[in-house]
Amino acid sequence: MKTEKVILEVKNLKKYFRVDSRRVLKAVDDVSFQIYEGETLGIVGESGCGKTTCGRTCIGVYDKTDGQVLYRGQDVHQMNKVQKKEFTKQVQMIFQDPYSSLDPRKKVHDIIAEGMRIHHLVDSGAQEVEEVQKLLLQVGLNAEHASRYVHEFSGGQRQRIGIARALAVNPEFLLCDEPISALDVSVQAQIVNLLVRLQKERGLTSMFIAHDLSMVKHISDRVGVMYLGNMVELAASRELYRNPLHPYTQALLSAIPIPNPEIEKNRKQIHLAGEIPSPMNPPKGCHFCNRCSRAKDRCRMEAPVLREVEPQHYVACHLQ
Amino acid sequence: MDKNSFLRVQKEETRISANYERGLLKDVLISLKENKLAMCCSVILLLILLVAVFAPLSPYDPDKQELTNQLARPSAEHWFGTDELGRDYFTRALYGGRISLSVGFLSMVLSTVIGTVIGTVSGYMGGKTDAFLMRFTDIFMSVPSFLLMVVINSLFPPKVWSMIVILGLFEWCQIARITRAETLSLKERDFVLASKHLGASHRQIIFGHIIPNMSSSIIVAGSLAVARAILTESALSFMGLGVQLPKASWGTMLQGAQVYIMDMPSLAIFPGIFIVLTVFSFNILGDALRNALEPKMIK
Amino acid sequence: MGKILEIKDLRVSYHTYAGEVQSVRGISFQVEEGETIAIVGESGCGKSVTAKTVMGLISTPPGEIKSGSQVLYFGENILEQSEKEWERYRGAKCSMIFQDALTSLNPTMNIGKQIMENILNHAKVTKEEARRQAVEMLELVKIPDPALCLKKYPHELSGGMRQRVMIAIALSGRPKILIADEPTTALDVTIQAQIIDLMKDIQKKLGTTIILITHDLGVVAGIADKVVVMYSGKIMEKGDLNQIFYGHRHPYTWALLNAAPSLELENKQQLVSIEGTPPDLIDPPVGCPFAARCRYCMNICTEAEPPEYVMSAEGCRGQEERGSREEHRTACWLYHPDSRYQDIEFDKEAGI
């Protein structure tokens, strides 16, 4: 692991949603991790595990319930207006749904230029046009696309426009919230290639949220696995895939269908009994205990904490 | 097949998919073309609008009395005949149209502006602001507005501009409700979140993203509001509480025709036809606009 | 094993206000009894429309099944049958499960009623017998405590359970063919694995023929016997599982297989991406629909539609008459006798 500067530090972050007067949904429950400058941290988990909420709380889109998120030492949730505006210039996000994330009444040029105008990054209209065209080329679109409306574009092209919009303010941190899950396989590869290239070119730090483990492994330096609001395992991506320690990670890895009939025929799947419990009412102790084949009494009583089992390999499990 | 057939081609640029979604205006024009009734109505409206605008071209003065020629039957000289004071009834109807249409349009503009602002702010801010503004709207809606207008107009001598203000003040509630509902769904869309996270202010988001995206609903609600305002204005004028004589509006003309309804029904029929045609056309047009603007058949 | 279903030159169009969308443009394939055939392709390639046609679910208008299209169920053209016959066919001979189980189930009716209704529609049995069969069906799809489940409503079940219930309902009429339209797309990976296993299990027990519609080649690798690869309303390549995965000849199949990152791949390595977007089906291009995005595109590809070539392990065996034995077939000009690229090796690095 690179011993670089920590850019984003999340300490015991909690985010609860009040469903009604009696029930509370603990979307993110005591999660801590760090993101180093220049790396890509992947977050995987199944639906309802709190990965999107976690990402959005980290960059201040949602208010936190408890804990702390420090961006370059500054508390994300306690910024004044000026700091907040500066923060939005440094931290940008890419959305999952390429259809609802772009304003249908605006031209591509205006969508991309919006951030530049808000932050007064350009002095003249001519410079704005030039910058937008540069961005369009960078994300693999044509300069002439600037004068069109978004409904003329396909899903992949829209996602490129979304990326250009995020890059327009020259951010250093990018939150990618399932940017490819709404796209077709062949287009997914285009977007992933683009993201990898842009990260390299611009030295971006990013947090990549997805449910597709193979894609996350491909794009991330380190990967965190979430289950029911908890981070259950965090390690370098190769390490995690070679040597998964948490039973949930193991099951998740074994469930990925591999497009290779030989492997499919011979592999042993770890079968998880049952389904994810409702995050409104998670099991006591380790949240995974009711689906874990190796659960012991202790797992049902006491929630495990994330600890370093091997160098740079963190697991929250009593069995390790 | 020549021998070049099996040579590899150099890649050219892939074209982007064709555009099947059309702009707002084009959408409307195409759906009007398909809907004959709506097409008819817009032609009628356009005609009424044009003749009202160009009313001063008429050779007669609407207020000039020609006492020797009272209650004349429709003729080549006086197309709609004359009224009890010998004024050319056609010219008066045109001038009446100017008043009725401008009262309808301007009060619609007023109510749309008020309604949109209240509805959008209410929906966007949420929480206490929303609760307060919506209760305020509820109170306005539960007031029997027509009776209140009657009372207000009988206390203060009504003028054209005061009619516009009063109609506008009582018509905005519907629009506020529509825009609030739209805002609630729009503000959850990712592009609003994206804009917020680019550092845009609330004002920039409301005017830059939310209002443009509900323009179609506002247009539809507006066209129906014009029809309602024209009807209310006619009703008030008919009761003598609207536009005051000698100024003509279609409502006051109807009122004046009451006395002669037995001898000269045409005095009532002509302004009546104008009112019915205009209101009917606006309603049909509103429906057609709704069909044209709301369903997005091709994504 | 005989042919249970044969699709011949199927063409389906949708009339929208922008024009005629030619969703399926002349496809032919056959399904043997008891096998699992996967139809693979990206969104908008016509795979779902094909499935709907086999189920008789194309509403006309706006849909239109072009004349000359044939769907033969045991040799009988079902496209010509009456609505009455369709009703007897659906559920008893062929049934379908959908991607979104929540919208496909009736939210106001409990699970038991929904299954029993289906059983009573297809067999003359008493209510008691129907209930017994319903419990049996739920046991078959491995729902724990089936008797309790009968009383539940769809919203009380989780996504995976709902999908199981849907399969139970689909199977309650004992159909010969089960069409599964993206049955696992909306599910999480761990649940997806359960459902796939369940489908394999059912096929073993009941011998049902399964037509699986999906875009996920990983799922296909685990379950299918035969694969049909579709692109913009046409069949690009078809063959058995090994032929498609290890002996694919069509550039599109190759790109599709290599677009997903495998776990062995080096981190952040370039993935094979297919540039551009699928063609517009209102105004489909002349020639091969994939030509504009194909790395190996030749002049002829944009001029004329490629015929189907029969492949063998040694290479191309030349163009054969349609309707002969089902084999590995590829619709690509690369395998024309005049082509110089017959022994093409697809290369990841080339042309990226």
N-to-C SSE string of chain C, H for helix and E for strand: EEEHEEEHEHHHHHEHEHEEHHEEE
Q: Quote the distance from N terminus to C terminus of chain B.
A: 40 Å
Strand order of the largest sheet of chain C: 7-8-9-3-10-11-14-12-13
Detail the poorly predicted runs of chain B: 13-22, 295-299
Based on DSSP secondary structure assignment, what is the total number of beta strands of chain C? 14
User: Count of helices of chain C?
Assistant: 11
Describe this structure in words.
The complex is a heterotrimer of chains A (320), B (299) and C (352). Chain A has 320 residues and is α/β, with parallel strands linked by helices. Chain A has 11 helices and 12 strands. Chain A has a single domain, classed as Rossmann fold. Chain B is mostly helical. Helix content of chain B is 67%, strand content 0%. Chain B has 11 helices and no strands. Chain C has a domain of 74 residues. In chain C, 29% of the residues lie in helices and 23% in strands. Chain C has 11 helices and 14 strands. In chain C, strand 8, helix 8 and strand 9 form a beta-alpha-beta unit. The relative contact order of chain C is 0.13. Classes of the chains: A alpha/beta (320), B mainly alpha (299), C alpha/beta (352). Chains in contact: A-B, A-C, B-C. At the A-C interface, helix 6, helix 7, helix 8, helix 9 and helix 10 of A face helix 7, helix 8, helix 9, helix 10 and helix 11 of C.
